Amino acid sequence: MTKDNHRQQFPALANKAYFNYGGQGPLPEPALDAIYQAYKRVQLGGPFSGEVGAWVAQEAMLTRRAIASELAVPPETIALTEDVTVGCNIALWGIDWKAGDHLLLSDCEHPGIVASVMELQRRFNIEVSVCPLAATLNEGDAVAVIANALQPNTRLLVISHILWNTGQVLPLAEIVKVCHEPPLTPPCQGGGQEDFPLIQGEGQEELSLIQGEKQEELPANNSKVRVLVDAAQSVGVLPLNLIESGVDFYAFTGHKWWCGPEGLGGLYVSAEALADLHPVFIGWRGIVTDANAKVLGWKPGSQRYEIATSAYPLYAGLRSAIALQHEWGTIEERYAEICRLSKYLWERLSELSDVECLRKSAPEAGLVSFRLMNKMPHNKLVNLLEKQGIMVRTILNPDCVRACVHYFTTEAEIDKLVGAIAIAKFSFE
Asked: Is the confidence at residue 220, as pLDDT, over 60?
């Protein structure tokens, strides 16, 4: 399928230059139709009927299979959720935390995840520290930074596969290996992590980070450090094989780079990590009962983390959106096109004297973040561009503008964006 024909499947692309795939992808027409037809079938069959109940179970199974195929994992390792944040919270709260346990996260995580970690610390008196991955965008070793920040009492590392603010792609398999196979002698503490609160601001509790003296008093923990990944920006972009990566928990959504409907995502839980993760949100979809409705236990596999009634017609919409992407090319071909177009945008932006790209080399994914050097407020630029039908967004930390390109983005769209940015400075001056 040609790119022009492919783009015609997306109504949202008809009248705008869209660069917000990292926030929400446009829903293709076939997915819209699949959702409508599914809702219609539910009503014609009777929303609460045996026929529709069997159909819902079949739809869930097909959707887990479709997702599992994209991630190269068994379907039983997939729990259907609403979005990335729900998946991350299942993993964060399902661990049997004890006072003094240590959680490590990076300084590039989404505020929604940071806030959850803050509440974990308050409720369970766990210790939290932050490793400075932002500084490794253009130089440095992200794996070494994480390894240096691990402690004998670390139980969980929380990172993103692709950092949502800068677009940096982390070497997931290498990071997991460091966490699952820690060195016999713990690394020297104090040089590999920032010593500051996670969230600052009036009316917000600050996370107190542990100090070096206190770390040395803790007994060694010989168990593996589990790895939770926020995969909001990687699913639908990177070729993935989660089994090979060894990752424990991988939370993702369908409404960003897969261009599926909002309200449907998932959580991968490895077979090994399953026993350590208890269900937190509990409902009838995740339990097994006998003929008298007596609860016998959990469903096998990751289905135990599913809760209750959902918008089931979205399942057909997500499968349709995923299938449409395969009509254009393989995930390897799509990723190569994303990288080619990201490089083109990065090069064009680098030509502008008043623009500084955060990355000093071509991006490795579809997120291109840049700063204005003429003191024009970034939100002013974003608002000005939107009035011209060009959609980008601001990022607050670091203070920048983020433009996202997908495999079906065109050079003409990129030229339009760059041209509008070049002209925008005259509006500011």
From this structure: no
Note the pLDDT of residue 198: 44
- Give the separation between CA 415 and CA 425, rounded to whole angstroms: 16
Return mean pLDDT, the chain. Answer: 91
Looking at residue 326, the DSSP 8-state letter turns out to be: H
**Per-residue pLDDT tens over the stretch 336-360:** 999 999 999 999 999 999 999 999 9
User: How far apart are the C-alpha atoms of 198 and 77, rounded to whole Å?
Assistant: 32
Distances (CA, A) of 371 to 177, 399, 414: 35, 7, 17
Q: What are phi and psi of 255, to 5 degrees?
A: -95, 5
User: How far apart, in Å, are the Cα atoms of 406 and each of 100, 176, 238, 301, 386?
Assistant: 43, 28, 12, 33, 19
Alpha helices in 184-250, H assignment, sequence order: 212-216, 242-245
Is 145 a residue whose pLDDT tops 90? Answer: yes
At 10, give phi and psi (nearest 5°): -115, 100
Q: How far is CA 241 from CA 237, 250, 302, 331, 411, in A?
A: 13, 11, 18, 12, 30
Q: What is residue 1's predicted lDDT score, i.e. its pLDDT?
A: 79
How far is residue 74's CA from residue 301's CA, in Å, rounded to a whole number? 10
Q: For residues 406 and 22, is the Cβ–Cβ distance under 8 A? A: no
Helix, strand, coil % (nearest 5) of the chain?
Answer: 40, 15, 40
Provide the CA 19 distance to its chain's centre, in angstroms: 17
